[in-house]
Amino acid sequence: MDRFAAVERALRSAAPHLLLDAVTAALREQYGVERAELRLADYGLTTLQVVEDVPYTTESVSIQGSPQGRAFGAQEPRVEPKAVEGATTVHLPVTVRGDRMGVLTVIVPDERFDPAHLPEMQRVCEALGHEILVAERDTDLYLLARRAARLTLAAEMQWQLLPGRSVSRPEFSLGAHLEPAYAIFGDNFDWTVSAHHLTLTVTNGMGEGMEAALLTNLVVNALRNARRAGLDLPGQASLADQAVYAQYRGALHASVLLLRFDLATGEVEAVDAGSPRMWRLRGRVVESVGFDAQLPLGMFEETAYVAERLRLEPGDRILVGSDGVYNGVSAAGELYGERALARSLSAHRLLPASQVPQAVLRDLGDYRGSLPLDDDALVVCLDWFGR
């Protein structure tokens, strides 16, 4: 049995809350690792929190500027030869199918360290990430390590709905982020990928707090139910519209942008039912992509929806923002979506899609200055590579 297979077998046989112990013991036996530390990115993507039995015992490290954060951001192993006397410290990103989860730091005595082992150790981190996702069904250990502060109940409900924060396939790379991470209300995103299509939905629920969270939960699950029943995009919107109207009789509604990407051709089918908006960066030109505005879900009984189409070209970048983004106001009274958002998208064109949402939201914070964020802010970025 080769080294990687031995570590993978140890991970699969470990109890859900003992994954770090299992991977440390296996890495010690196979690669001479002295000790290991696992940190997961918090919901706000600002810190890396240690996975430990008693949460918050060990101080977190910032993603910006720390060695662990640089490995997390670059998605590459980072080697520190002299961080520990007589040993080499290696920070390895833990990522599953493009979803950046955290960093595994290992310390190897200098006489046992071999740079040729790094690719295998990186594969171990990918296997660890897969096992963490499975283990989260049975233990709160890893979910607790993802929070730097207590979540509101509304935020807890919203985060449990999300499919992840990023995903990649040969045809595309996608990243998304929500702010404020620990007190989000009605904004949400969802995606699913099949052999032939990527379906992406961005939701902006009406109201605040629990009211908004309950509405968004209804919308997201109604859309999933319709999609899994085989309905087309307009049919998905119609079924969710009926579900919301049946519950609230028009008193509450939700804005949704539904997008379905053909992975083979780049053709995009879209249903615009409310406020989320889309921009496209093609070459160095940023332009707003306008759709025919249709009624938000649940506003009236049995609304009929119509799909529109456009085509992406390899190299295109798509950005979708909620009204909390493009309606952000500067001290001078100008909306962020008028000019500043396009400048931000252009300025960050060299960043990978997984890092763009946070960069755009940082720019939004600078743009607003001292003005507080008075609404959810959601950004989704997709890089299209095509086949």
UniProtKB/TrEMBL annotation:
Domain PPM-type phosphatase residue range list? 169-384
Against SMART domains, the record matches this protein to: PP2C_SIG (SM00331)
What keywords does the record list, in alphabetical order? Hydrolase
A matching Pfam family = SpoIIE
InterPro entries xref list: Bact_Sigma-Reg, PPM-type-like_dom_sf, PPM-type_phosphatase-like_dom
Name-wise, this protein is Serine/threonine-protein phosphatase
Task: State the organism of origin.
Answer: Streptomyces durmitorensis
The organism's taxonomic lineage, starting at the top: Bacteria, Bacillati, Actinomycetota, Actinomycetes, Kitasatosporales
